[in-house]
């Protein structure tokens, strides 16, 4: 019999239901949720928080901020592969519990697929994103929120015709990303938050993610994040 309490907690997190909808978290994602719960108990209140899915989890923001001399702790609570449904289910852990003074949010790219949500995927993303902002407004009324524009993608790189990557990129066209950004900007304005586009320097001549900065057409290299960080500096410093 497995008596490891962490293992049991991970299993319970992965199996958790919300409004009778089964959790989509796999064991690795559930472990990250459990680890973040532990870190939250040690976290300083009023810090800066970055949160979202893999595009946020892979952002080495804490290291870059420390290297740039940004005062105070900067935490990252991103979890790769998560959707807005997952985010809402774990919103206490990935956003609310640390009680940050400022939140930088990038969630929803994994909603950009008709494989899960059908043709109405964009409406689903918008509805859930609104729920996220409403929850923060109600629970953390003093927290500043920065809704980050979605990064560009590129479906035309070598290997993009491989089944897994083709499915990932199918609905992440520059037109769809622009439409999603427009909706998120409107939501940010509705709730009195800032919408920020820190993508300058990531685009190629076709308005897609630069090949030199790309890993797979969606995820990006450290060089790309250095560009994003440079563009973010005005929002991180007084």
Describe the structure.
The chain is of the alpha/beta class and 238 residues long. 47% of the residues lie in helices and 11% in strands. The strands form two sheets. It has a five-stranded parallel sheet with strand order 4-3-5-6-7. The chain is globular. About 3% of the residues have low confidence.
Short description:
It contains eleven helices and seven strands. The protein is an alpha/beta fold and 238 residues long.
Fraction of helical residues: 40-55%
Strand order of the largest sheet: 4-3-5-6-7
Q: What is the terminal separation in angstroms?
A: 54 Å
Tell me the structural class.
alpha/beta
According to CATH, what is the class? Answer: Alpha Beta
Biggest sheet overview: 5 strands, parallel
- Tell me the CATH superfamily: SGNH hydrolase
Number of structural domains: 1
- How many strand segments? 7
Task: Give the overall silhouette.
Answer: globular
Strand content: 5-15%
Low-confidence stretches: 17-22
Q: How large is the radius of gyration?
A: 18 Å
Quote the average pLDDT. Answer: 91
- Our count of helices gives 11
* CATH overall fold name: Rossmann fold
Top keywords for this entry?
238 residues; alpha/beta; Rossmann fold; five-stranded parallel sheet; two-stranded antiparallel sheet; 47% helix
Write the layout of secondary structure elements.
Blueprint: H1 5-15, E1 17-18, E2 21-22, H2 27-42, E3 48-52, H3 54-57, H4 61-67, E4 74-76, H5 84-89, H6 91-96, E5 102-106, H7 114-117, H8 121-139, E6 144-148, H9 163-169, H10 174-190, E7 194-196, H11 222-236
Parallel strand pairs: 3-4, 3-5, 5-6, 6-7
Antiparallel strand pairs: 1-2
Helix pairs in contact: 1-2, 8-10
């Amino acid at each position: 019999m497995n008596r490891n309490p962490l293992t049991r907690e991970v299993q319970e997190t992965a199996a958790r239901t919300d409004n009778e909808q089964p959790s989509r978290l796999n064991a690795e994602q559930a472990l990250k949720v459990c680890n973040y719960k532990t870190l939250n108990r040690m976290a300083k209140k009023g810090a800066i928080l970055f949160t979202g899915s893999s595009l946020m989890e892979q952002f080495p923001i804490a290291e870059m901020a420390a290297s740039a001399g940004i005062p105070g702790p900067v935490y990252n609570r991103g979890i790769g592969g998560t959707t807005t449904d997952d985010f809402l289910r774990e919103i206490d852990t990935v956003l609310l519990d640390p009680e940050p003074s400022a939140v930088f949010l990038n969630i929803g790219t994994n909603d950009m697929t008709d494989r899960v949500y059908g043709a109405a995927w964009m409406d689903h993303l918008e509805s859930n994103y609104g729920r996220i902002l409403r929850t923060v407004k109600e629970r953390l009324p003093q927290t500043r929120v920065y809704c980050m524009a979605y990064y560009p993608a590129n479906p035309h790189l070598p290997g993009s015709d491989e089944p897994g990557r083709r499915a990932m990129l199918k609905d992440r066209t520059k037109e769809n990303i622009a439409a999603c950004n427009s909706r998120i900007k409107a939501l940010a304005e509705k709730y009195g938050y800032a919408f920020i586009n820190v993508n300058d320097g990531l685009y190629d001549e076709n308005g897609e993610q630069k090949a030199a900065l790309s890993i797979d057409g969606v995820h990006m290299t450290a060089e790309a994040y250095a560009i994003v960080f440079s563009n973010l500096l005005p929002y991180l410093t007084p």
